[in-house]
């Protein structure tokens, strides 16, 4: 059975079979400790429990910890991505409707949808993503 070593510093596992190559390249972690096959299987061969991530424990062994909350900058970046995606969706709906309206051949339903989606797009544009996560997203019109 293959042996594995764990480094708390890198939060990674290293197979003993590759130890010489790691040593030769001077990349074998100085803090590596042997871990048994059950620990290797749990932390490196399976998915983490919901809401958890692998981290080094106080004893130098891997443990599951709660996924840390996103930082303010990460929340703002996430909100900006969502805003841009929703604007893209909105524009892809508005464009063909605008052709029907501009050429005077739009049905009453197309005119209604056109106006609802334009209003939605304006409301999206007004969103201040720096307020994340406290953003009141407008409701997308039903197609």
TrEMBL record:
Q: Which PANTHER family match?
A: PROPHAGE TAIL FIBER ASSEMBLY PROTEIN HOMOLOG TFAE-RELATED, PROPHAGE TAIL FIBER ASSEMBLY PROTEIN HOMOLOG TFAE-RELATED-RELATED
What is a single Pfam family found in this protein's UniProt entry? Answer: Caudo_TAP
Q: What is this protein called?
A: Tail fiber assembly protein
- Tell me the InterPro entries matching this sequence: Phage_T4_Gp38_tail_assem, TFA_Chaperone
Organism, per UniProt?
Limnobaculum zhutongyuii
């Amino acid at each position: 059975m293959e042996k594995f070593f764990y480094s708390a510093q890198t939060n990674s596992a290293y197979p003993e079979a590759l130890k010489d190559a790691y040593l030769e390249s001077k990349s074998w972690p100085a803090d590596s400790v042997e871990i048994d096959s059950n620990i290797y299987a749990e932390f490196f061969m399976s998915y983490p429990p919901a809401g958890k991530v692998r981290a080094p424990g106080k004893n130098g062994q891997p443990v599951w910890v709660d996924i840390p909350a996103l930082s303010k900058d990460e929340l703002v970046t996430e909100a900006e991505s969502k805003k841009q995606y929703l604007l893209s969706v909105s524009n892809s709906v508005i464009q063909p409707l605008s052709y029907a309206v501009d050429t005077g051949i739009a049905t009453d339903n197309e005119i209604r949808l056109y106006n609802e989606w334009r209003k939605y797009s304006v409301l999206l544009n007004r969103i201040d993503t720096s307020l994340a996560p406290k953003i009141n997203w407008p409701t997308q019109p039903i197609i």
